[in-house]
């Protein structure tokens, strides 16, 4: 096999992958190994492939992805904690021809924003909700989330989540799948190239649903939080596969085509 | 052409909102203001003008819908009454921080807590001194008639867009529920998307190739930038103080005594002034129309002219603090008011002025 030089690799005809222009050049604020960066990329690639950058308004949450608007090269609004679906509801009602999505973590969507989430889903707002579930409050330093697994340690459940006193983990995705307003509800992950492809397909389907005015699409991405879980990125992915996936099984929960 | 109608304050406001070219209303039922959303729903504004009316799942959701709509450069509003307005404070702080224009109506009822459903003015502090967290100001308009309930809808939207700031209409259960003759403006068209892009270039309308992305946020983790943002806000509030202070001075030219009152209290105080003048007492009434910015200058000027000032409020005395700051101990300033949803009678005000100011 012939040697290939650095200069040859950089030739445009040898380009095999390029960061989408819908991501800014700003360095991500996420921990190395975190699923947020990959999910950001997938969402932005979908918008680029659908050529809807100029028609899309994103809603950023409070949590690790509070600064999503620094990385996503689209018009964005930053919501108060948990309120993103309320903002998205108004944006879509007032701009029905635009594409509107929220990007939220588990504390934001499944704790403080439970009401906004359930009612936006129940009204069947024609929006996309992307829900990153890593079972912990990442930004504030690893506190117990509504999605924290039974027995799982966090800074506010230092001896493990005791479901007798701290309650059960909330399966928000299964819950919203029960509501007539949701059209597509799925749970995915981004820890392997195969899962990244599946998640991208799911997010594409969600935005296509919106294009067809079908109703609310809800895409959960089960993710890791190596810093919050006090593990290396690799350990955290293994732990996620062994512990999170049995409790939060991957796959489509509701598909109304 | 203007149209004359007999309407409730809440209904006149709702009709004026449609006619002022509003794009969206987001609300939650609460007495004594539920007629606003009821009227809007019955009018089918989606058919009349394309305006969106949505009953939200909570006051919290409603104000955050307003945030989302305002961030799109749309004319949006919410209305509520005291306990509901308390719930909205988080959202109002975000809206003020993100510098978004919107209209909020508070048809005040007695508090604290669930309080009562009768009229009150005990939300003055909440309205003019913050309410939510952080250093911010709302532009606060205080209607004292059904006509002003209608007029302030359009004025409120225009001021909100002029300053990119939330405007609060601080009404009360009496003004909201009573019926009066009202003259309604002609229908003003809603903004087109081209107008939004031209007039509010900061709005999130979708990033096109020819501009940078628009971001609506109140967050800056860099404290030096956050301080700078606060300085910008404060400079805006100083501009509002300079240009938007509104008041009505009634029989003040030769006044030896002054009543300061707004809203319903101003109406019954005007009657008290007439009664006192008939008895030979030279009493004037200063009615603040904007509660923030507060008409400090005119009150300071009148303090040099009069022998004493009575503030009349349906509260334990809240606005009196701003009157005292304006007067600065030069003359006596006393409060008279009723609480818990009771409207004082003009006779009570006459007695209070005589006992606390003239004879006091």
Task: Label this structure with key terms.
heterodimer, A: 257 residues, alpha/beta, Rossmann fold, 7-stranded mixed sheet, two-stranded antiparallel ribbon, 11 helices, 9 strands, 39% helix, globular, B: 360 residues, 2 domains, 15 helices, 15 strands
Describe the protein.
The complex is a heterodimer of chains A (257) and B (360). By secondary structure, chain A is an alpha/beta fold. Chain A has one domain (32-255): Rossmann fold, CATH 3.40.50. In chain A, 39% of the residues lie in helices and 18% in strands. Chain A has eleven helices and nine strands. In chain A, α2 (35-49) packs across α9 and α5 packs across α6. Chain A is globular. Chain B has two domains: 3-193, Thiamin diphosphate (ThDP)-binding fold, Pyr/PP domains (Rossmann fold, 3-Layer(aba) Sandwich); 247-358, 3-Layer(aba) Sandwich (Rossmann fold). Chain B has 15 helices and 15 strands. In chain B, the strands form three sheets. In chain B, strands 3-2-4-5-7-6-13 form a seven-stranded mixed sheet, with helices on both faces. Chain B has a five-stranded mixed sheet with strand order 10-12-11-14-15, with helices on both faces. A two-stranded antiparallel sheet of chain B has the order 1-8. In chain B, α14 (320-327) links the parallel β14 and β15 (332-337). In chain B, α1 crosses α2 and α1 crosses α8 (146-163). The longest helix of chain B is centred in the middle third of the chain and has 21 residues, at 223-243. Chain B is globular and about 70 Å long. The N and C termini of chain B lie far apart (52 Å). β2 of chain A pairs parallel with β9 of chain B.
Main CATH class of chain A: Alpha Beta
What is the largest interface, and how many residues per chain? Answer: A-B, 33 and 38 residues
Which sequence of SSEs, written as H and E, runs from N to C of chain A?
A: HHEHEHEHHEEEHHEHEHHE
Query: Which stretches of chain A are poorly predicted, pLDDT < 50 over at least 5 residues?
Result: none
Question: How far is the first residue's CA from the last residue's CA of chain A?
Answer: 49 Å
The CATH homologous superfamily name of chain A equals Thiamin diphosphate (ThDP)-binding fold, Pyr/PP domains
Order the strands across the largest sheet of chain B as they lie in space: 3-2-4-5-7-6-13
Basic shape of chain A:
globular
Q: Tell me the name of the CATH homologous superfamily of the largest domain in chain B.
A: Thiamin diphosphate (ThDP)-binding fold, Pyr/PP domains
CATH class of the largest domain in chain B: Alpha Beta
Q: Which architecture name of chain A does CATH use?
A: 3-Layer(aba) Sandwich
Number of strands of chain A: 9
Query: Could you say what the CATH topology of the largest domain in chain B is called?
Result: Rossmann fold
Q: Cα distance, first to last residue of chain B?
A: 52 Å
Question: Which regions of chain B contain 5 or more consecutive residues with pLDDT less than 50?
Answer: none
Share in helix of chain B:
40-55%
Query: Mean of residue pLDDT of chain A?
Result: 96
* Strand proportion of chain B: 15-25%
Q: Mean pLDDT across all residues of chain B, rounded?
A: 97
**Percent of residues in beta strands of chain A:** 15-25%
């Amino acid at each position: 096999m012939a040697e290939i030089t650095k200069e040859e690799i950089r030739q445009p005809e040898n380009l095999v992958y390029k960061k989408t222009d819908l991501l800014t050049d700003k360095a991500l604020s996420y921990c190395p190994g975190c699923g947020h960066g990959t999910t950001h990329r997938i969402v932005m690639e979908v918008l680029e492939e659908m050529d809807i950058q100029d028609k899309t308004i994103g809603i950023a949450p409070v949590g690790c992805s509070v600064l999503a608007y620094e990385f996503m090269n689209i018009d964005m609004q930053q919501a108060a904690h948990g309120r993103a679906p309320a903002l998205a509801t108004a944006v879509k009602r007032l701009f029905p021809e635009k594409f509107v999505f929220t990007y939220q973590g588990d504390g934001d969507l499944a704790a403080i924003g439970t009401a906004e989430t359930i009612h936006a889903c129940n009204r069947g707002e024609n929006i996309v909700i992307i829900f990153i579930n890593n079972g912990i409050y990442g930004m504030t330093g690893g506190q117990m989330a509504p999605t924290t697994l039974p027995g799982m340690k966090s800074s506010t459940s230092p001896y493990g989540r005791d479901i007798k006193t701290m309650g059960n983990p909330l399966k928000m995705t299964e819950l919203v799948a029960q509501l007539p307003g949701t059209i597509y509800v799925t749970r995915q992950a981004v820890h392997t190239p195969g899962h990244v492809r599946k998640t991208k397909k799911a997010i594409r389907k969600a935005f296509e649903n919106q294009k067809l005015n079908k109703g609310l699409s809800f895409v959960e991405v089960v993710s890791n939080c190596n810093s919050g879980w006090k593990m290396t990125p690799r350990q955290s992915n293994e732990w996620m596969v062994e512990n999170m996936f049995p409790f939060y099984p991957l796959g489509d929960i509701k598909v109304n085509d | 052409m203007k149209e004359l109608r007999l309407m409730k304050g809440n209904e006149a406001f709702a009709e004026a909102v449609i006619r002022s070219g509003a794009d969206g209303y987001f609300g939650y039922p609460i007495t004594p203001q539920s007629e606003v959303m009821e009227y809007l729903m019955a009018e089918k504004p989606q058919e009349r003008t394309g305006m969106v009316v949505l009953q939200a799942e909570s006051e919290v959701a409603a104000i955050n819908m307003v945030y989302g709509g305002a961030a799109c450069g749309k004319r949006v509003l919410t209305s509520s009454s005291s306990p509901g307005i308390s719930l909205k404070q988080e959202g109002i702080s975000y809206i003020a921080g993100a510098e978004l224009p919107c209209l909020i109506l508070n048809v005040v009822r007695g508090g604290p807590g669930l309080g009562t459903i009768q009229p009150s003015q005990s939300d003055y502090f909440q309205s003019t001194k913050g309410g939510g967290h952080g250093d911010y100001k709302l532009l606060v308009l205080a209607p004292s008639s059904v006509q002003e309930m209608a007029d302030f809808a359009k004025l409120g939207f225009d001021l909100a867009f002029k300053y990119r700031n939330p405007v609060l209409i601080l009404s009360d259960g009496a003004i909201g529920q009573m019926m009066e003759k009202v003259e309604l403006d002609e229908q003003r068209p809603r903004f087109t998307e081209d107008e939004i892009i031209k007039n509010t270039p900061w709005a999130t309308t979708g990033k096109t190739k020819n501009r940078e992305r628009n971001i609506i946020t109140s967050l800056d983790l860099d404290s030096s930038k956050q301080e700078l943002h606060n300085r910008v806000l404060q400079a805006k509030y100083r501009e509002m103080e300079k240009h938007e202070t509104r008041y009505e001075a009634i029989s003040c030219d030769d006044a030896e005594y002054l009543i300061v009152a707004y809203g319903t209290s101003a109406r019954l105080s005007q009657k008290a002034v007439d009664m006192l003048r008939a008895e030979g007492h030279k009493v004037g009434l200063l009615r603040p129309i904007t509660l923030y910015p507060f008409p400090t200058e005119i009150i300071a000027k009148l303090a040099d002219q009069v022998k004493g000032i009575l503030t009349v409020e349906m509260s334990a005395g809240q606005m009196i603090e701003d009157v005292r700051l304006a007067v600065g101990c030069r003359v006596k300033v006393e409060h008279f008011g009723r609480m818990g949803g009771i409207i004082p009678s003009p006779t009570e005000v006459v007695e209070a002025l005589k006992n606390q100011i003239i004879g006091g």
